[in-house]
């Protein structure tokens, strides 16, 4: 692909996001909030280690460092932000808190949403989507608890375990606990909560929906919105390879290497693969998309086989199975939404997740995102997903989630 075409695509995405008013500026340096105590103090999941004032669109924003657990159940420090609207809550009951699980933002320390939402770090145009989603939720009067997931933005945490089911679910559920325990916010300690996310965030939200009843039974989770969730990682290995968004497959491999070091993933890479790993781990989303688009993973392995070929054999088949979403029944109503023209996550993947949950007896609302073009349809879905998620969560908190539409899609 020519450099001219790459720049044209970047400009197109940039124009869409600027028009939507969701681009975030780069800005000031980061703070010591990202340096955890060493060793970590004994505490409960969701306990706050540090907090400091932050800024975002006129809300009361507080950046936090809190305790959570990785996929091996090891306690870790995780950063994020709690946002409280300055307007009174006019809905029924106490003000709800919604956990926002971020869309793919990158792997580098400079990419963390708690930084870019405050005008810090090195946000790109795609990272501006985070602000649009947070603003939609705040506009409905919800408080928002945003997690950065585990990653190198917190010192000593290693790489970001991208789309790893257990760790992302834990960090999403624990940021809700952290928001309930954060002093000075006026938020209820045992009030209603919800979860929302799109793309990587959709995967994290869906995983949290499955684990909430066992990992966080203390939370009163009223509903979960999962937009375009990558529920089956083996399917993504085939669909992303060699395409425009192969960077996301690279991110997933970095995540597997972080979460399952015993699998010795890097032993499969040739020098070109090792170099891509080193480069990708420093990038934010848009940089990675245009830097690595079109790469074939068969050119990055020692034996010339594509990544998908390895995922069907030990030990990777067990890793893929552990990270598949749809095997447990969510205890709360869930909405799954995806564009039928999605050019990143196969369109059938979200619908299959919804069907899997229906088959297990969950209350599921499946909805197709409005799509006008197959080009950038995944990114363009970011424009309507925040409004759809917010409207559905409003109905959930009013006790009007309904019975779903299982058997009708």
Automatic annotation (TrEMBL):
<dbReference type="Pfam" id="PF03583">
    <property type="entry name" value="LIP"/>
</dbReference>
<dbReference type="InterPro" id="IPR005152">
    <property type="entry name" value="Lipase_secreted"/>
</dbReference>
<feature type="region of interest" description="Disordered">
    <location>
        <begin position="35"/>
        <end position="55"/>
    </location>
</feature>
<feature type="signal peptide">
    <location>
        <begin position="1"/>
        <end position="28"/>
    </location>
</feature>
<dbReference type="InterPro" id="IPR029058">
    <property type="entry name" value="AB_hydrolase_fold"/>
</dbReference>
<protein>
    <submittedName>
        <fullName>Lipase family protein</fullName>
    </submittedName>
</protein>
<keyword id="KW-0732">Signal</keyword>
């Amino acid at each position: 692909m020519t450099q001219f075409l790459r720049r044209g695509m970047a400009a197109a995405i940039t124009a869409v996001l600027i028009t939507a008013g969701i681009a975030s500026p780069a800005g000031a340096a980061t703070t010591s909030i990202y340096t955890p105590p060493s060793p970590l103090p004994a505490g409960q999941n969701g306990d706050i280690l540090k907090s400091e004032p932050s800024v975002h669109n006129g809300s009361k924003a507080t950046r936090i460092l809190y305790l959570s657990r990785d996929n091996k159940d090891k306690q870790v420090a995780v950063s994020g932000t709690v946002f409280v609207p300055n307007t009174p809550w006019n809905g029924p009951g106490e003000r709800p808190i919604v956990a926002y699980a971020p869309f793919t933002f990158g792997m580098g320390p400079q990419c963390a949403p708690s930084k870019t939402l405050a005008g810090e770090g090195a946000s790109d145009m795609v990272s501006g989507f985070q602000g649009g989603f947070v603003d939609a939720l705040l506009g409905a009067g919800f408080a928002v608890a945003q997690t950065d997931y585990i990653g190198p933005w917190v010192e000593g945490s290693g790489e970001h375990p991208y789309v790893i089911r257990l760790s992302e679910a834990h960090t999403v559920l624990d940021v809700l606990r952290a928001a309930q325990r954060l002093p000075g916010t006026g938020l209820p300690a045992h009030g209603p909560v919800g979860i929302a996310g799109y793309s990587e965030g959709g995967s994290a939200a869906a995983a949290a929906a499955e684990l909430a009843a066992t990992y966080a039974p203390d939370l009163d989770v009223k509903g979960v919105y999962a937009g375009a969730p990558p529920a089956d990682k083996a399917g993504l290995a085939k669909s992303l390879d060699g395409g425009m968004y192969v960077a996301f497959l690279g991110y997933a491999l970095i995540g597997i290497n972080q979460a399952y070091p015993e699998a010795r993933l890097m032993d499969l890479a040739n020098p070109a693969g090792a170099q891509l790993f080193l480069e990708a781990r420093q990038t934010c989303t848009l940089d990675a998309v245009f830097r690595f688009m079109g790469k074939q993973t068969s050119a990055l392995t020692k034996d010339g086989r594509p990544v998908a070929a390895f995922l069907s054999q030990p030990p990777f088949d067990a890793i893929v199975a552990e990270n598949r979403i749809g095997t447990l029944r969510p205890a709360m109503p869930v909405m799954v939404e995806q564009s039928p023209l999605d050019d990143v996550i196969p369109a059938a993947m979200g619908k299959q997740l919804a069907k899997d949950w229906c088959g297990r007896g969950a209350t599921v609302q499946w909805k197709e995102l409005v799509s006008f073009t197959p080009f950038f349809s995944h990114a363009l879905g970011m424009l309507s997903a925040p409004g759809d998620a917010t409207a559905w969560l409003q109905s959930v908190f009013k006790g009007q989630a309904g019975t779903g539409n299982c058997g009708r899609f």
